[in-house]
Design goal:
By secondary structure, the chain is mainly beta. The radius of gyration is 17 Å and the shape is elongated. The longest helix has 15 residues. It has one domain: Immunoglobulin-like (Sandwich). The chain contains one helix and ten strands, in the order H-E-E-E-E-E-E-E-E-E-E.
């Protein structure tokens, strides 16, 4: 039996039994900005609609809508605006990429020659 058929049967069985599929939903994504610039980008998921985000220096973006069962495959970013930290320099942002992760905590950090988006598991 195809995986898509098994998933459909599982969802139907859960619906008939009164079990909420949201109980298994992943934690909402958070992106902590540890740079001196505004960071904006996109959170991409496997087979789900992408989210856009923008976060001020030293602040955290938190998803407002439920993530459901969507695995994160990529988080892109770009720095913009005037530096709010002395000696901060604008540079490229290396995206976080994965084949699909349930991780929900991410942060943007200076690498010395640009910036990179990390998952909390990579710290």
């Amino acid at each position: 039996m195809k995986i898509s058929n098994l998933l459909a049967l599982s969802i139907a069985a859960a619906a008939m039994s009164g079990v909420s599929m949201n109980a298994a939903a992943f934690t909402k994504v958070a992106v902590q900005n540890n740079t001196g610039f505004i960071v904006s980008g996109e959170i991409r998921y496997a087979s789900c609609r992408s989210d856009r985000y923008q976060v001020a220096p030293g602040a955290a973006f938190r998803q407002t809508s439920n993530r459901g069962n969507c695995l994160v495959t990529q988080i892109t970013g770009a720095v913009s605006g005037k530096a709010r930290v002395p000696n901060a320099k604008a540079g490229p942002v290396q995206a976080f990429t994965s084949s699909g992760t349930a991780q929900s905590e991410f942060f943007v950090r200076d690498t010395g020659n640009g910036y990179r988006i990390y998952s909390a598991a990579e710290r």
